[in-house]
Write a structure and sequence with these properties.
Sodium/glucose cotransporter, 22 helices, mainly alpha
Length: 539
Amino acid sequence: MKTLDTLDWISIVLYFIVLLGIAVWVIRKKKDNTEDYFLAGRNVGWFVVGASIFASNIGSEHVVGLAGAGASNKLPMLIYEIHAWVVLLLGWVFLPFYARSGVFTMPEFLEKRFDARSRWVLSVFSILAYVLTKISVTIYAGGVVVSALLGIDFWTGAIATVVLTGIYTVLGGMRAVVYTETLQAVLLIIGAAVLTIIGLDKVGGWQSMVDTVTPEYLNMWRPPTDPDFPWPSLVISSTIVGIWYWCTDQYIVQRALTAKNIKEGRRGTIFGAVMKLMPVFLFLIPGVIALALKMRGELHWDSPDEAFPILMSNLLPSGLRGLVAAGLLAALMSSLASVFNSCSTLFTVDIYKKLRPNTPEKKLVRTGQIATVITVIIGVIWIPIMANISGVLYEYLQSVQSYIAPPITAVFLLGIFHKRINSHGAFATLIVGIFVAALRIVLELIKGSLNPEGFLFKMGDMNFLTFGAWFFLFCILFAVAVSLLTPAPSQEKVVNLTFGTITDEEKSKNKASYNWKDVIVSIVVVAIVISVMVFFNGD
């Protein structure tokens, strides 16, 4: 493993000077009110919205984890990376409802559609989910990247990046997050593209790589009997997680809500979907290249999660290596910054402001800053526990999301598509969903001490994708049953918030917010997704 040289360090320092300049510029422009701090004043254009959606998603846990999946025979995980079509659902289906309701947060939308109980549950549940899936995973990936690149120990690397990111997020709020993310997205794409091209050249081209790892290795579709990735469960569970993550999660939707209007917001999601097509080629393929080089004895790494940083440090020339290292650190920081800001938004707007409605705007911003600091500390504490759940980082992320997503996805989908679903159905589904998700995580950790013939062992040992699919069906049926057994919701809870109740005025407004170019680009994105699915079939 090559360490960074003087030229690399010059690249990294220059990058951080530019980043610091953007952060200072933003901090000087910001106002001390909640709309500016949490939603960048709702005045962001489509390019920045799309780049921010992409950069929020592509953190170092993606770069490290997806390359790790490529290097460890977990190619079916690729399905989570071709969710560009789900990003389109956010812009075309969900965003108009969110924009019409004028909300800051997703729990706030549930209050408008259902009641305050659902808002409370989703607020607390979302913050817990961020700690379990986003903060700890991102900090862990950051530690792997920084220790591999800079030759320092894991914990020093992890905590240094957290502190640095925390400072500009706390001071600059959402505006600092979206503008620094735009720069980070561009840098990471260029760096990873160069690494992929140099890597393919080093391995002797695509065909040579395929011959080394064998064509079967590049098959993302395993039979329904496969113990790890049965394809029917993979398709269903990944879609459920995708809708939760891209269409109902504060972390991503908050970017679309920063847009000037619905037109810019939708265009931002379309641009985000176009960019979402890239990770397959930029991050997964380098993992496969790293594996091919290892099989030939030209590269060595102990854990698949080290594949990307080691490939990068060994193949890239001096200077460029530093720039891509900066891009990896940027990815880590953009993910952390996004989740820090989302956590502080949820806590401040949905919990603190509800308990103390007369709090001045300036104090609300201060509360958000304190909430960020506390969330970081909890995330760091969770890392050692996380290491026990799954071997490969990316698989850990998807398995926990498969337990968290079903109840939230069910409530949002039914809330928008079925006007008969009421507050009792939504609240009961969220409560039962949290309980079942927590039970599954605990059973997975302790299954070794359970009776192999018992129900609890089977529940803890069931394939995580199959569990997610059945769990989602249960949540849908449960929500419908509870709603039908209790009174129908009032008109104010459904008009303009569900399909079939949108007024003619709102329909015409929505129609005016897009044109044929938006439709064509969206169709092309879906066509590319289908092509990737067909290409990675092992033939």
